[in-house]
Amino acid sequence: MHVPDGFFDAPVSIGAGVVAAGGIAVCLRGARGELDDRTAPLAGLGAAFVFAAQMINFPVAAGTSGHLMGGALAAILVGPYAGVLCISVVLLVQMLFADGGVSAYGINVTLMALTGVLVGYGVFRLVTALLPGNVPRRTAVTAASFLGALVSVPASALVFVGLFALGGTADLSLGTVTTAMLGVHVLIGIGEGVITAVTVGTVAAVRPDLVYGLRGGSAPLEIRGARPVEA
Q: Which end of the chain is more exposed for a tag (fewer CB within 10 A), N or C?
């Protein structure tokens, strides 16, 4: 999914850069309401985890591999605004190591940070709202995490196809690009869903208060003082 330099023409690269800059500006403002003493350190840990996890590729098809994008995972753990910022920082660091072009940074943020988070977190919220109330909350969150992450990957691939239709420079037909992107990224989405569900489910099992997607459903941490001893 990491787009290199020269894969899109200048108007599309500039336009995506404007969209990415606007999205990051909105998220910088919105993240103030999501980050507190507990979630701010978790946002840093989440970005580090996504960065490390993206270095691990898993086989998808013959000669093809994929890795975690992390948008849904970051959004469910620390909130959608902070999630966009986490993935944008990861993409910035990766760009410095030549994983994604400099002129394509706005495209990569649009694809993996903005689309990945918005679609992944939107599906997560929709599924948790539609599941029956008798489903255990941890089970509901784990299932919703899987579906949110699964859908976010082919959604990002579809946005890629849309951008390619506007200004792709490769000599490939739009049908070929669509088939290749959707076919591979649906399979990658399954891996993304499994990793996200396992990670969110594990954190929810031991520290539900650290999962942003569980807010409102679990009691906040309470610091209790020592009880007085009766004489």
A: C
Give the number of domains in the chain: 1
User: Rounded to whole angstroms, how far apart are CA atoms 204 and 66?
Assistant: 26
* Helix, strand, coil distribution of the chain in percent, nearest 5: 70, 5, 25
Q: Give me the phi and psi of 18, to 5 degrees please.
A: -65, -45
Mean pLDDT, 10 residues at a time, over the chain (231 residues)? Answer: 88 96 94 77 82 74 72 92 94 88 93 96 94 84 95 95 92 89 89 92 87 65 44 45
Phi, psi dihedral angles at 48 (to 5 degrees)? -65, -40
**CATH code assigned at 156:** 1.10.1760.20
User: In sequence order, which residues have a C-beta less than 8 Å from that of residue 152 and are 6 or more positions away?
Assistant: 69, 71, 72, 115, 116, 117, 119, 120, 123, 189, 192
